[in-house]
């Protein structure tokens, strides 16, 4: 096998020179396990367990009084303000609520109301399925609308026209890990009056997302990946401040009313971003999400993004050096500025390799037909763990451990 001593030494130096190496101490790190699945579910803040217990105590002691004596009602806006730096947004422009699919529906419906004279929706052919399903739902409900599909950034730019109402794109491809140039596309779209929606589920919390700087119109994403808000944790929606009040949200609910406790029969939308909150906040999920959001107040986003860049580049280097002659082929862009939170690579028996890795205490993910995804968390991984994980992968490939029949059934 390829000797890993040089990589181990380099990892030690990188970790030793890391200005925020201590960030990993904020999270639970089960001994022996190395998690590369933050593109699916992020790490657990150490404060999550006591926070969950505190909520149960409040439930027991307060019941309905919790709405008045705790921040349950305001938490979507509070969390939005706490997490907004991680998507490059200013306070008062983001709320944490619902899930990504619902927030995509809200953003798409709002954009179509703003650009109601236009009839074309653009999306990526290989977009995450839920993103495609949402726009197909609008197309089916309104025969005047047409969804058009593009495959590359160049194709998307060429497809822009005065007939396009909105583009809904993933900032980072969920399979390939390819990152699109948000700022460049926003400029081109806005020159033609086209609105843009970016799903940053595979980038927020890992790589730079610059809502304000790129002049994004809408941004949505889930919190449970790199942002670590917990399994099935609440999603978020950002709307450019000058856009939010140009139309009613397509999902009107009492929590988005101008006066929640007026219990008015007629809807009057709240000013600004809060109109995009619809129903009752997910109090339990928000309590856990708050734990993660508080950690981000201790570290500058640019330092977290820089840490991810270092881990991601080092992982590719280690993978190529130790497994390049074992059939491993990098499928994600090698240029970091074109890559998102995870690195995708191809390997013989990919799905079975992922199962064998779990037995070796390395958790990654598989996507058909032959892609292995390593989602690198910038808040819980070290460079030393990268080398250790690559070493375990090297052994599985070299000794063809993955061919064992017990790895025949591949999990999602």
Automatic annotation (TrEMBL):
The EC class name is hydrolase
UniProt KW keywords: Hydrolase, Pyridine nucleotide biosynthesis, Pyridoxal phosphate
Name of the protein described by the UniProt record: Kynureninase
What family, per the record?
Answer: Belongs to the kynureninase family.
Residues crossing the lipid bilayer are: none
Q: Name one GO biological process term.
A: L-tryptophan catabolic process to kynurenine
Question: What are the record's GO terms for cellular component?
Answer: cytoplasm
Names of the cofactor(s): pyridoxal 5'-phosphate
**Function of the protein:** Catalyzes the cleavage of L-kynurenine (L-Kyn) and L-3-hydroxykynurenine (L-3OHKyn) into anthranilic acid (AA) and 3-hydroxyanthranilic acid (3-OHAA), respectively.
A single GO molecular function term of this UniProt record: pyridoxal phosphate binding
């Amino acid at each position: 096998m390829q000797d890993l001593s040089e990589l181990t030494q380099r990892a030690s130096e990188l970790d030793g020179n890391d200005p925020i190496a201590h960030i990993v101490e904020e999270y639970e790190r089960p001994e022996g396990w190395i998690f590369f699945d933050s593109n699916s579910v992020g790490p657990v803040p150490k404060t999550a367990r006591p926070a969950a217990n505190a909520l149960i105590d409040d439930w027991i002691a307060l019941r309905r009084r919790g709405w008045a004596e705790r921040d349950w009602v305001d938490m979507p806006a509070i969390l939005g303000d706490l997490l907004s730096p991680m998507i490059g947004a200013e306070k008062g422009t983001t709320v944490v609520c619902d899930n990504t699919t619902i927030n995509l529906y809200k953003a798409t419906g709002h954009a179509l109301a703003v650009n109601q004279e236009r009839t074309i929706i653009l999306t990526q052919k290989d977009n995450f399925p839920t993103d495609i399903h949402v726009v197909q739902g609008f197309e089916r409900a309104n025969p005047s609308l047409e969804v058009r599909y593009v495959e590359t950034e160049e194709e998307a730019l060429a497809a822009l026209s005065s007939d396009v109402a909105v583009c809904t794109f993933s900032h980072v491809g969920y399979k390939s890990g390819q990152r699109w140039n948000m700022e460049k596309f926003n400029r081109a779209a806005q020159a033609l009056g086209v609105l843009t929606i970016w799903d940053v589920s595979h980038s927020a919390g890992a790589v730079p997302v610059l809502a304000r700087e790129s002049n994004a119109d809408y941004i949505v994403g889930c919190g449970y990946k790199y942002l670590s808000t917990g399994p099935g944790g609440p999603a978020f929606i950002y709307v450019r401040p000058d856009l939010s009040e140009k139309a009613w949200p397509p999902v009107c609910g009492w929590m988005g009313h101008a006066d929640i406790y007026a219990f008015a029969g007629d809807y009057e939308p709240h000013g600004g971003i809060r109109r995009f909150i619809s129903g009752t906040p997910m109090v339990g999920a928000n309590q856990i999400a708050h734990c993660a959001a508080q950690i981000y107040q201790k570290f500058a986003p640019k330092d977290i993004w820089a840490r991810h860049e270092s881990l991601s580049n080092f992982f590719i280097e280690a993978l190529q050096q130790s497994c390049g002659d074992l059939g491993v082929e990098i499928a994600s862009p090698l240029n970091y500025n074109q890559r998102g939170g995870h690195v995708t690579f191809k390997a013989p028996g990919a799905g079975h390799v992922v199962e064998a890795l779990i037995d070796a205490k390395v958790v990654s993910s598989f996507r058909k037909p032959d892609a292995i995804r390593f989602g690198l968390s910038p808040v819980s991984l070290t460079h030393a763990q990268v080398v250790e994980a690559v070493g375990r992968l090297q052994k599985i490939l070299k000794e063809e451990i993955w061919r064992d029949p017990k790895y025949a059934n591949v999990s999602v």
